[in-house]
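Weekly puzzle thread! Below is a chain. First person to post its structure in token form gets bragging rights.
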Amino acid sequence: MSNPKYQIQKTEILSDNWYTLNKVTVDYQKKDGSWDTQYREVYDRGNGAAVLLYNTRKGTVILTKQFRLPTYLNGNKSGMLLEACAGVLDDDNPEACIIREIEEETGYRLTTVRKLFEAYMSPGAVTEILHFFVGEFDVSMKVSEGGGLVHEHEEIDVIEIPFDQAYLMIETGEIKDAKTIMLLQYAKINQLIPNATRLADDPLY
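Winning reply:
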């Protein structure tokens, strides 16, 4: 639905090598009724989905670790980023997308996940809406080693760690990925993994 306060005058493609970078000229009506012309560069990479995989019995979560070039170019010396499993929707609905990504990246085959919420992740420059999920896993769901798809040049490490350790890594700076921080905070606030510390340390589990 269009808004009469914003009038798109021109959209120019600056790059479409992978996704699409547009230069958009928009007329914007201010509160006093006058009009202002603005020029913005907008990156359209489609929408995506992310999931926190957790095991209530063991008190653990599964994260992934892979090289992220933009972080390497902005202060991350190793270029490696610890994050929740995620992917671009392509032509899938969000639930189908994340179930596919879980198996490709982690090697676990889940049949159900639960949607939490959705959010714009960088609204000043990127159009993407990210759909957030949680999914409970156990060892019986493991069907492969995961690691991503070779033809997509993915080389992903799969890391299972105690939830409390992962949550502490936000404070220590070892986890700096926004979607992962949001999912871990949701799990903490909503006690998704009760007694996580006790369960993770219990030799019976």
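Puzzle host: Confirmed. Bonus trivia for everyone else. The CA atoms of residues 170 and 176 lie 7 Å apart.
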